[in-house]
Amino acid sequence: MLRVWGVRTSWRTVGDGEFYCPDCGGDRNFRRRTGRRRLTVLGVPVLSRGSTGPVVECSTCSGRFDMEALDRPTSTRFSAMLRDGVHTTALAVLAAGGAAKGPREAAVAAVRSAGLADCTEEQLLTLVQALAADAGRLPGWTETPQDEPGGAALAIELREALEPLAPHLEPAGREAILLRGARIALADGPYAPAERETLQTVGEALRIPREDTERLLADAARTPS
Ligand SMILES: [Zn+2]
Fold this sequence. Notes:
By secondary structure, the protein is α+β, with helices and mostly antiparallel strands. Helix content is 46%, strand content 22%. The protein has seven helices and four strands; from the N terminus they run ββββααααααα. It has helices at residues 75-97, 101-113, 121-134, 152-162, 171-186, 193-205, 210-222, and strands at residues 5-21, 26-41, 44-58, 64-65. The protein has a four-stranded antiparallel sheet, with no helix packed on it. It is elongated and about 80 Å long. The N and C termini lie far apart (71 Å). Residues 138-150 have low confidence and may be disordered. The structure holds zinc ion (ZN). Zinc ion binds at residues 21, 23-24, 28, 58, 60-61, 63. Residues 21, 23-24, 28, 58, 60-61, 63 line the site of zinc ion (ZN).
């Protein structure tokens, strides 16, 4: 059968970059393309049928996707966001709890397992002290746990690190970050009020329902790490 009528789309590249391709499953280069559709008769373009796109085209598998495909971070970017999220959570819990020996060690272990292999207690302490200075704490605060809330600066840091991560994590992944924070807080005994408040902020920023956060924190306190 000879196809008399048809529609042909000619594509034009209007940009490029890197994205996570849902079809071939990895970080790939993409081309952003717009198309011009033409009605053809016997393969000859005769009439414009308007434009189409823009679409994202994978340079590896040539799969075409809506622009929303760019909302998902690349694997490289996602790993960095995850590291940053765990790192900030660890710092915030340390800052809230006074950074005693046990929590410091637990924080280093959590941050290293999140991918910052060369993290040290000294590095964390330096950053925690900077955070505390931002929050207007007095010198010498590391010796005594704080009863006051972690401060607005800490909450902002947490939200900036965790909120962009939340939509890309399964519930179990979000809970794992909260629980890492809980383990740090519990390394020197029950939650201090400021630690609990910080962990509640972590839960909120990760979009974990409040009652789930409470339950997870209570479970963590009952079970040895
Ligand atoms: Zn692909």
